[in-house]
Amino acid sequence: MTAVTRGRVPHLTALLSLVSLALVFGAAGGVIPQTAVPRPPAWLLEAIPTVNVLLSLTAIVTITTGWRAIRRGNVDRHRLLMATSAVLFATFLVLYLYRLVVLGGSQPFPGPDAIRLYVYLPVLAIHILLAIVCIPLLYYVLLLAASHSVPELRKTAHARVGRIAAALWLVSFSLGVVVYVLLHVIY
User: Which GO terms label this protein's molecular function in UniProt (predicted)?
Assistant: First the structure.
């Protein structure tokens, strides 16, 4: 697996990114039929946003701690924390997409139009844009990490791309928390 992946990191990154983004846009656009997934009990559907914000907050901690670990030279801790962050993100995304498909798309903003126009929509747009940009960056650094030894990894773009990916990921997760607060706490 490692030898196969090593030479194909850019191609695998592109393929995985396209598949992931197709699923996201398909779920968000209502292209995936509601009958494609089982209908959950109402309490579970209502719990998903809260579970997702807890996953996001936990991911913020693991990304930040993982970043600090690698700056201190602790590669094993960094790998564990970043792998945990990736699992948290994947879990978040599966729950988010499941809820989107079940509901038939995203829900409207329930607050005042001025807040929707000048606060909610800009925050949501930046959150979504960063999440889209992060997907190929994350696949790229994860595939590099999975297919190279630590000494080999130092000769790749892993650290440079990883810093960018982690920074954008942190901002995206943080803005996702703001979106949650606006949708489920304030309004």
Answer: cytochrome-c oxidase activity
